[in-house]
Design brief:
The protein is mainly β. Strands 34, 35, 36, 37, 38, 39, 40 and 41 form an 8-stranded antiparallel β-sheet that branches. The chain is globular, with a radius of gyration of 30 Å. The N terminus is likely disordered.
Length: 760
């Protein structure tokens, strides 16, 4: 598949995309991969963030893509107290360093210089000794000077010089020991200047080991037989039988901490167990890492975050992870009037939900942060795939399941709608040959029409279009003879236009358009009857000019007017052609479009598989922003869903590695100028953003003058918000003072005056 984006030829970026003040992060901190001890402080890492907390304080410091920490997938963590640096290792060899001044350094030496395949560069462990950082990786060992953060050397220590997975290293009696996956424990003298020569290494023990530390003048190692051993230089002696494989073996100098999936053991200097934890009350946890800091035990879990307890009483645990959604992988987000909902279940490109997800729902409502509803409260609904808010009943929310039907939330009440309680015209299970009792109800595409009816799609059944009427009755519509792949029909997003025509994106069937008010009329847009590049359609979106934007697995198409459905029997769609000098190119040619969202100014936010997200002008001829992981806080280039808050202009991006948002300015226009407001106000000396004037009608005229009436800025709104960079027509920053804002509607029949104070 072609990966070149012709859009680069004409892109104009209107502001520095590194301005992280325009971004917010909505990350989960529940999936802990490592826990690290420091003096009076504990550090913990998820796959895409790091946070720390002092033992004597409840304040959490968080480092993620918004603050400049942009990992690939974090695998291990190390805190250097001596050099006041934090090292973050990744699965691709990337090392991120938080320096003593708080800045983030990115080290790609392993990625670019170590001559092994990319899938052999995972970093497994860091070990600090005598100013050097020994990096255990899937190819061998690399060494870094901690003070300068420069690489010194790399060692391939297989018995014939080949790369081998090194799981952990330590130093004992001036010898470096390395636990390898295939060659036992290898060792060499640190005083040997030729450690890059594999012949200088010897096999200390040929068994199968998983970890090693130096502790209290001896070696302590974990074996693949799920036992812990000590070695004083002559032989290994068993300390503890664990009954499970060791995930992490750590020491803070005064304790040894051993983590398995269901157990954490703390051993003292005599290697006697002083604490053993095998459960955390009220949580069904799986442990991932643990450490001891200043008399407190900290345990990281696979999906429930970080917990702390006094080492003297390790039974009463306190969760201390930052507030966030259930997990980072987010399939769909939906913004209601005062809350954001997110679901984490999914299906693959072929709409296969297996393995089925048993995950809850994440809900964010501003001041109260995230409140997560766990799976065990959702009546067994699996693989939750989409969300719809009832526009006339703010407390009524529907969440579709791509296996179990659909959940209805009404205040605190939850109801599971399926084939047993929606009547003969309601939700249906697919039929599995040879198993008539099998129940699998794949519901998707929820959308409300202007009359308050809820429309959904039902995969793998003939009557694939369903509607829940406002009177509580269900109705179904049969696609027999309409689509080419009826028995295997699968459907993605749905958009409903002002004529109540339903536009449904379908897998292998293009776009299905349906309107029951015209004699159950159907029109199918596919490759046989329209200029559509792929019948695998991922998304559809209606814009403010009644155009339908269609995102397919191989490009973008536009239906110029959805009103044509009423009078025509076939519909033609068109690409957007970009002219750059003498070169004409198709916008997003052959690119898989994942989602399209339309903002208040009729601009389009478009996500491309593995390509980030683009903001294009209303006609697609100009690229306003292009965001990806390299130039923005996006944690991933796979943006699975885009949602826009029409009131604030905030644009939410749901990715496979977390949710972030961009504080856009294109909000829905107001009906009048009665609610115009200005923020921030006052503008203080340390503020570096723009002043936003919201609550505008479309095409309102905005003039800004100083107190003496001198004009410093003028513009016409597109949507409900404009922004001012506090300069006089872009020439120079205006001086401190009060500035008058005069707003008039396009027809001049409505007006208002506001003030903003600027303090330099």
């Amino acid at each position: 598949m072609k990966k070149a984006f012709f859009i680069f030829l004409f892109s104009q970026f209107l502001f520095s995309q590194q301005n992280n003040q325009l971004w917010k992060g909505y990350f989960s901190y529940n999936e802990i991969v490592d826990v690290e001890s420091a003096t009076n402080t504990v550090f913990a890492a998820t796959e895409n963030a790091v946070f720390n907390q002092e033992v004597t304080s409840s304040n959490l410091n968080i480092y993620n893509s918004i603050s400049g920490l942009k990992p690939n997938v974090i695998t291990t963590l190390h805190r250097s107290e001596i050099f006041n640096k934090t090292f973050v290792g990744n699965n691709n060899g990337l090392i991120l360093i938080q320096n003593s001044d708080g800045s983030i350094s990115t080290k790609v030496d392993i990625i670019t210089e170590v001559p092994v395949p990319p899938d052999k560069k995972k970093i497994n462990d860091f070990y600090e000794f005598d100013g050097r950082l020994y990096i255990a990786a899937d190819y061998g060992i690399s060494v870094m000077d901690i003070a300068t953060s420069e690489f010194i050397s790399t060692y391939f220590i297989g018995t014939t010089g080949e790369e081998t997975e090194v799981l952990q290293t330590t130093v004992f009696n001036n010898e470096i020991y390395a636990v390898t996956r295939n060659f036992g424990i290898r060792k060499a003298s640190l005083g040997n200047p030729n450690l890059f020569d594999f012949n200088q290494w010897q096999t200390f023990d040929g068994g199968y080991w998983t970890g090693i530390i130096s502790f209290n003048n001896q070696l302590v190692a974990s074996n693949a037989n799920s036992k812990l051993y000590r070695n004083n230089g002559t032989s290994f002696q068993e300390i503890l039988s664990l009954n499970q494989a060791v995930i992490k073996l750590k020491t803070n100098g005064s304790e040894v901490v051993v983590t398995t999936q269901n157990n954490v053991y703390v051993l003292n200097t005599a290697l006697l167990v002083t604490a053993h934890v095998n459960q955390i009350t009220d949580y069904n946890v799986q442990f991932t890492a643990a450490s001891v800091v200043n008399g407190f035990l900290y345990i990281g879990t696979q999906k429930d975050g970080l917990f702390s307890a006094s080492l003297s009483n390790p039974t009463v645990f306190t969760p201390i992870s930052p507030n966030g959604p259930l997990q980072n992988y987010t399939f769909r987000v939906k913004k209601g009037s005062n809350r954001l909902w997110a679901v984490h279940g999914d299906y693959n490109q072929q709409f296969n939900p297996y393995p089925l997800d048993e995950l809850g729902i994440s809900m964010f409502n501003g001041e109260n942060g995230w409140v997560n509803k766990p799976y065990d409260e959702l009546l067994g609904a699996k693989s939750l795939s989409d969300i719809a808010f009832n526009p006339s009943r703010p407390n009524e929310v529907y969440v579709t399941s791509y296996f179990s039907g659909m959940l209805k939330f009404q205040g605190d009440n939850i109801e599971l709608l399926n084939n047993t309680n929606t009547g003969p015209n309601g939700l249906e299970s697919l039929v599995l040959s040879g198993n008539p009792t099998y129940v699998d109800i794949r519901i998707n595409s929820p959308a409300f029409d202007r009359d308050g009816n809820l429309w959904v799609t039902n995969a793998f059944v003939n009557k694939a279009i369903k509607v829940l009427r406002t009177n509580g009755q269900w109705q179904s519509y049969d696609l027999t003879g309409i689509t080419a792949n009826l028995s295997s029909g699968r459907y993605n997003s749905m958009a409903i236009d002002r004529n109540n025509t339903k536009w449904i994106s379908a897998y292998n069937d293009g776009v299905v358009a349906f309107n029951e008010n015209y004699g159950n009329k159907f029109i199918v847009i596919n490759q046989s009857n329209a200029n559509i590049p792929s019948t695998d359609v991922n998304c559809v979106a209606l814009d403010n000019r009644n155009q339908l934007w269609i995102g397919t697995g191989a490009g973008l198409r536009i239906l110029p007017s959805v009103d044509r459905f009423v009078s025509e029997t076939e519909l033609e769609v068109f690409p957007i052609i970009i002219q750059e000098g003498d070169l004409a190119q198709e916008l997003f040619y052959q690119q898989p479009v994942l989602d399209i969202a339309v903002d208040g100014a009729n601009r389009k936010w478009i996500s491309i598989a593995d390509g980030g997200v683009f903001l294009v002008s209303s006609n697609g001829q100009q690229t306003i922003y292009r965001f990806d992981k390299s130039n923005s806080p996006l944690p991933s280039n796979n943006v699975l869903d885009i949602e826009i808050d029409g009131v604030s202009g905030e644009v939410f991006f749901a990715t496979d590695k977390g949710i972030v948002s961009f504080l856009g300015t294109s909000t829905k226009p107001s009906d009048s100028l009665g609610d115009v407001f200005v923020y921030p106000n006052p503008v203080r000396p340390n503020f570096t953003g723009t002043v936003k004037i919201s609550g505008l009608t479309d095409k309102a005229n905005v003039k800004i003058t100083d107190i003496e009436g001198n004009l410093v800025y003028e513009t016409t709104s597109s949507g409900g918000t404009i922004e001012w960079d506090t300069t006089a027509f872009g020439k120079y920053k205006v001086a401190s003072g009060v500035y008058m804002i005069f707003v008039a509607s396009q027809d001049g029949m409505d007006s208002t005056v506001k003030k903003v104070m600027i303090i330099r």
